[in-house]
Amino acid sequence: MKFEWKGVFPALTTKFTAGEQLDLPAFEKNLQAQLEAGVDGIILGGTLGEASTLSAEEKQTLVQFAIEKINGRVPVILNIAEGSTKVAIEVAQNAQKLGADGLMILPPMRYKSDHRETVAYFKAVAQQTDLPMMIYNNPVDYKIEVTLDMFEELADCQNIQAVKESTRDVSNVTRMINRFGNRFQILCGVDTLALESLLMGADGWVAGLVCAFPKETVAIYKLAKAGRIQEALHIYRWFLPLLELDIHPKLVQYIKLAESVTGLGTEYVRSPRLTLEGAERERVLQIIREGVSKRPILPEYKNL
């Protein structure tokens, strides 16, 4: 499938049973809600997908299941988060064989590669697959920044097409555009900077709280791109306390709790993560319940 890196791409959570097995019925329910809301693609095996706890076989199951259920309506993207170049290439090639439409890729895991090593890693993977790729630039959480100079060296890899911009510096959207024009499509990867990034020219939003609030997320994107800024702001200001759950180390537990409240998932996570309890759970639950109680009425947005 040919597609553009534009619009809302949910970083889907991986649904588990109480026994930590894949819960495909719960996954399908959430997936259908995303499609109904009008998302433009889905991403599997990211941070929210608890990638570090998934086996290769489980990732394969999720990809195959998503492709079957989506049936060509939107692209299916698999995240690559590996410690070796060899394994990253294997994941990319296997994803292509399974029928995935694209890849999101982090710098090497567990080793802090330097400029030369990081560029070589991305190039090595890009040269071994035909799939379009989006680089995930998140130096806050993963300690390696993909700099503008690195992107300059990667520009000759035609299948490196986009960046998930998670530096938490919204000015980086403008820096990328000033340096590269439209060579790389830019998707905001931080929920609390999404509207700001879209207004600065970002092409899309790799979203987290979309897992629990798909319609509101897509509405903000559509309204912003249609120039209906005040309507987008109204929803975004309501949304912000919820979006802030995306920038906490326990974002997986927080967002899964939100999914359980909105009926789009369960709280179950895979160890070493543990479900929330006590005062922490009550604090997060209060934020979620307050947001749900004040949920805005959305304008018609799908055809914007």
UniProtKB/TrEMBL annotation:
List ligand-binding residues for pyruvate.
V206
Q: Which named protein is this?
A: 4-hydroxy-tetrahydrodipicolinate synthase
Which keywords has UniProt assigned to this entry?
Lyase
Molecular functions per Gene Ontology: 4-hydroxy-tetrahydrodipicolinate synthase activity
The record's section on SMART domains has: DHDPS
| Catalytic residues of the enzyme | Y136 (proton donor/acceptor), K164 (schiff-base intermediate with substrate)
SUPFAM superfamilies linked: Aldolase
Top-level division of the source organism's lineage: Bacteria
Record family assignment: Belongs to the DapA family.
In terms of Gene3D superfamilies, this protein maps to: Aldolase class I
Report if keyword Lyase is assigned: yes
What species was this sequence derived from? Thermoflexibacter ruber
